[in-house]
Specification:
By secondary structure, this protein is mostly beta strands. The chain has a domain of 41 residues. The chain has a 4-stranded antiparallel sheet, with no helix packed on it. Bound molecules: zinc ion (2 copies). The site of one zinc ion has 5 residues, from loops.
Length: 65
Amino acid sequence: MSARELHCDTCEGVVLFEAPPCGDGHGADCPELACTGCGTAVLVVTYPARPSRRPVRRATHRHAA
Ligand SMILES: [Zn+2]
Ligand SMILES: [Zn+2]
């Protein structure tokens, strides 16, 4: 039931992508979408809306004693 409009490089435009029959048991959560124009399958990963903050690693060089 998931369908959305995405840009397809092959179709060179925005086309409707629909979830293909999933054989992996993802069900409604299947991340795969297939272009209805050319059939290209893409993986759509939706990230939760969070501020993209990464923990900053200190690049201090430690010498082993
Ligand atoms: Zn799937
Ligand atoms: Zn396409």
